[in-house]
């Protein structure tokens, strides 16, 4: 368990280095949470998971710098809250290429990046220019599908 924690920390530190981000306690802790969870996390999810270790502003700045550097992308969730997930494609400063489906589970409420589902190239009428495209689906996720509803 301790070994696993060490590896996670190393992984987080390597990522910060790769993305030219200075190592701070908050950045490392937040990154570890993203690496540990396979679903997207909102600002308040992170606040809950981190406890009282960091204030809202520090957390806000951390997420902002991650997004700027192409480490995480934001997802406008159907629930209305903005969630963040690690970029798996090659993203860099101000250039995100996260054109995959975001799946929102109506049972557990989590949002997942489905990298294997790529948004097809979209052709728009003349005069329209796309800055970002959001592709989302709602339904039951893999783990909820495998777990019978409580009470049954
Ligand atoms: Zn990205
Ligand atoms: Zn689910
Ligand atoms: Zn995503």
TrEMBL record:
Signal peptide: none annotated. Gene3D superfamilies: Winged helix-like DNA-binding domain superfamily/Winged helix DNA-binding domain. It comes from the Bacteria. It holds the Pfam family FUR. This is Fur family transcriptional regulator. It comes from Pontibacter locisalis.
